[in-house]
């Protein structure tokens, strides 16, 4: 992956957002004095990890989403389970996140240079921005100053939006995090990079309803191709699945074009076209990648401000409470 070239040609947006106040005041320049090399260390760590494993960008972006949606952006997704408590990272929706080692590696490097300074929550937020930019997407200034949470419960992952949600359920889920309908459609565009296992969409491929074997909103040829990738067989590999759009290693607006063609992988993706509240946004982003990039950067800053707390700690080890 030609990172330097992508960085040069990537659409760059610098976002200075005025947001509803949270419990903590975040600042794009939070580490300018205390750890000026923080973002450089994180970028280099993410870049090297992606060269080794092209699945890293999608996993780190998903990590940010899942972390922020549970208890706010507090790095609770990084904590290990204990004998008495199963942590978020081991909840069913997070089994496919993986790549925790990338954040752990960045955190170890930061502790050597700036001990007890950069929170794990900020590392996740910066890494999420970096993987988007390195994949050809927009750049934005990450607001920083988050503290790390001390509670992590797998049972709370039930609150994550599911790939089977309809538009009303999606709107409700995102509104609970202070996000608008437009934010929801915009952030769903994060599916432009990544992969899904069959378990997240195979219910659309057979016995869909009393009247339809296959989800009727799905392009027929596309459905047949997915059936071949997800055979109803005990011989199916545990990693069977499909890319989420036709340019799954590039951050672009192809996700929305796929939806217009009936090729949204998740039911929740395709549902965006069938509802008047969201259809116009899908159509706008499908024809205007610049508009998508601009809105994505803004919505990421907004999500990154959700549930941020002033009280907490800066973990020394990302996997354990101090």
UniProtKB/TrEMBL annotation:
* Site feature: Transition state stabilizer: 62
Textual note on the cofactor: Binds 2 calcium ions per subunit. Binds 1 heme b (iron(II)-protoporphyrin IX) group per subunit.
Highest taxon above the source species? Eukaryota
CDD domains reported for this sequence: secretory_peroxidase
Q: What class of enzyme is it?
A: oxidoreductase
Q: Which keywords are on file for this protein?
A: Calcium, Disulfide bond, Glycoprotein, Heme, Hydrogen peroxide, Iron, Metal-binding, Oxidoreductase, Peroxidase, Secreted, Signal
GO terms in the biological process aspect are: hydrogen peroxide catabolic process; response to oxidative stress
Cofactor(s) listed in the protein's UniProt record = Ca(2+); heme b
- Residues engaged in binding heme b: 191
| Family listed | Belongs to the peroxidase family. Ascorbate peroxidase subfamily.
**What is the protein name given in its UniProt record?**
Peroxidase
């Amino acid at each position: 992956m030609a990172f330097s070239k992508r960085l040069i040609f990537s659409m760059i947006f610098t976002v200075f957002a005025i947001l509803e106040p949270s419990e903590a005041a975040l600042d794009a320049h939070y580490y300018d004095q205390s750890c000026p090399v923080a973002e450089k260390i994180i970028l280099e760590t993410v870049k090297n990890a992606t060269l080794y494993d092209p699945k890293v960008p999608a996993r780190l972006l998903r990590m940010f989403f899942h972390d922020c949606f549970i208890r706010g952006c507090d790095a609770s997704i990084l904590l290990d389970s204990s004998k008495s408590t199963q942590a978020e990272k081991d909840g069913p929706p997070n089994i496919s996140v993986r790549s925790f080692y990338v954040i752990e590696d960045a955190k170890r490097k930061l502790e050597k240079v700036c001990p007890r300074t950069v929170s794990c929550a900020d590392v996740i937020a910066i890494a999420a921005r970096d993987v988007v930019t390195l994949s050809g997407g927009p750049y934005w200034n990450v607001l920083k100053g988050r503290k790390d949470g001390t509670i992590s419960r797998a049972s709370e992952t039930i609150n994550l939006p599911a790939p089977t949600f309809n538009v009303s359920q999606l709107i409700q889920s995102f509104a609970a995090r202070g996000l608008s309908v437009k934010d929801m459609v915009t952030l769903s565009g994060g599916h432009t990079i990544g992969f899904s296992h069959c378990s997240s969409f195979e219910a659309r491929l057979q016995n869909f309803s009393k009247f339809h074997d296959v989800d009727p909103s799905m392009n027929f040829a596309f459905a047949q191709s997915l059936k071949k990738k997800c055979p109803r067989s005990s011989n199916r590999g545990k990693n069977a699945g499909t890319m989420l759009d036709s340019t799954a290693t590039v951050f672009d607006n192809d996700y929305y074009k796929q939806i217009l063609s009936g090729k949204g992988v998740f039911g929740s993706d395709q549902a965006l076209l069938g509802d008047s509240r969201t259809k116009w946004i899908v159509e706008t982003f499908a024809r205007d990648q610049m508009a998508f990039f601009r809105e994505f950067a803004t919505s990421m800053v907004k999500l990154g401000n959700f549930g941020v707390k002033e009280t907490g700690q800066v973990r020394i080890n990302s996997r354990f409470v101090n």
